[in-house]
# Entry
Amino acid sequence: MNVKNVTKNSEIDTKYSALETNVNAIRAIAGAVQGTIGPKGLDTMLVDQFGDVVITNDGVTILNLMEVSHPAAKMLINIARAQQEEIGDGTTTATLMAGEMVNEGYNQIIQGVPVARVIEGLRKGVKAAITSIEKKSIAIKGLDDPLLHNIALIAGREHEDIAQLVVKAAQIIGKDKLVDHSFKLSETIKAMEGAENEVFLGVLVNKERMNKQMPKELNQNVKVLIIDDALEPEEIDDEALATEAGFTRYLQLREDFKNNLNKIINLGVNLVLVDRGVDDLAEEIFADAGIMVVQRVSNKELRNVAEHTGARMIKRTGLKKSQEEIARYLGIAARVYENEKLEHIRILGGKAKPIATVLVSASTSEVVGERERIAKDAASAVQASIKGGIVPGGGSIELAIAREVEELKKDLRGMSAFGINCITAALQRPFMQIVANAGYNPLEKLGDVTQAQVEQNTFSLGIDCDSGDVVDMLKIGVIDPTLVKIYALKAAGEVAEAILRIDTIIRKKETNNLQEDNMDK
# Structure
């Protein structure tokens, strides 16, 4: 039943039409990324209105750059973004699973199963599947565990150089830092055209010194000051400046600013990093004093420098403090220099926490973004593995868990057992798409692997995408981070439940009409 144009400015879809509309949107989003999964997955080309092209098989990149207007589709994309933010990998898996849960749920509902019962079964299935994954997880033995290289290689789409860089960076940083929830290894990745693959202990600031008269290199006990503000005098408005008192105030503020600059010089500061712009007077005085100044540094890079050097960020009003107090805000580095070819500053040997930077080479500007995305995926997968362990990849473990979840039907009463079908279908989906992308019949290979897993009582059996044979994923090194699987399943379950619960779609009034109604009242 459809009821349209109930009032002048509203449109209502009810009953199954609303659900069908949402399901079609979810199917479209899942279809956009399904061809990218697995070792034989293909790339997607995204073109904007100006003809600029991005070629990638990174799921979250595709979803972020797609032109999407449907609210249900946006919900799925937001879930994928949340997966990326939390884990940094697995967005395509989460999207495919969500699409399959929604699709199967829709099939059950139109056959007469109440939505509440479908959702009840879905929730129990997700919970049971996650518990099973956790039980089958294998812990990483240490940062020298060769499994880490396999993880980086798979997540890094078989780029050997990137896998080596990421693992080396993880070893330099250490386990304590990698398990810290606030730290993300992926944020240490930088890709640059013309660079050489490199891992170094230090921080990269993607800016140049603001004046070529300033020193290009600083060595030994470099004092670092970070100003989380503009390095400018306090402002006075034009109207006040036109008065004698206002002009006197202006001159006083300039003099105070100059005194603050002299405090920095007297403290022996060698490097000043500024969040915003730097006044011409400060530029001139610091250049004469042999101080390197870098302006408009991103807040993330400022935080990294602070953590590495032990510096504390200060506002420009904080420069009114005494020299002794300002001295407590300074950090120390062993060496700072500008790489003129790559147009960035390196800060090395900070006295505080060790931070590694991974510099990834890119032959042309067109591939810089994709190389960086690949390396970030590899870094995220390595960190997730260290935190939560690993499981067999290639969709193998999901097939084993799907059979376990299917057994839940025996203990469920009523129609909620039908909701279990949503989970079993979703768990099979990654395997079937990986196999299909490799050029094999997914139903045939599903039967082969299922039979082999049951006969050999091994949950790690899957399909070799090169030969098509049933093989042990653990033995050939095809593994995935446990946390990627868990969060993908959680995310898929959340969005599927949200979509299936929507019974009616109502178009809201336009903002102008809403304002007119309020005025009438």
